[in-house]
Amino acid sequence: SQLGWKFYDADDYHSPANKKKMAEGTPLNDEDRMPWLYALHDILRREDSSTQDAILACSALKKVYRRVLVSGASAVESNQPEQPGENAALKILFVHLDGPMEIIAGRLEKRSGHFMPPKLLKSQFDTLEPPSAPENFIAVSLEKSLPEIVLEIEHAVFEG
């Protein structure tokens, strides 16, 4: 990125089984997504511990998924005793790219060679729990131009 931050695309970290399931048109469920989200949390924690800022593009559709990105397994396995300092929550600003299904569908149609067929989009909208307080997030309209979107995110990161 132009900020000198590392960029990760969460889609690159899906298991072969998850990719196959999506390619066949079957939506993933929580069970499919949890190991993927744990792996993404580990990547973010590693970058954080080396003081590297990072951007993760990820369809973290549910509140619990976003909690896992912030806190790892302890977000769902709350009966585990935490080691002091070990699982301090990561400081993450979630950017909710918000827009009508038609706009997103149009963009998906132009994306070639991706394992997720556009017909799975509806299931993602059905699953979506948009972020809300007290989550640390901003919502940015997908109907804006890319430079406007980037500016809005940069403003929130550096002046928010």
Automatic annotation (TrEMBL):
One of its GO terms (biological process) is carbohydrate metabolic process. It catalyses: D-gluconate + ATP = 6-phospho-D-gluconate + ADP + H(+). The keyword Calcium does not apply. Gene3D superfamilies: P-loop containing nucleotide triphosphate hydrolases. One of its GO terms (molecular function) is ATP binding. Keywords: ATP-binding, Kinase, Nucleotide-binding, Transferase. GO terms for cellular component: cytoplasm. Its EC number is 2.7.1.12. InterPro entries: P-loop_NTPase, Therm_gnt_kin. SUPFAM superfamilies: P-loop containing nucleoside triphosphate hydrolases. Pathway: Carbohydrate acid metabolism; D-gluconate degradation. PANTHER family: GLUCONOKINASE-RELATED. Belongs to the gluconokinase GntK/GntV family. This is Gluconokinase.
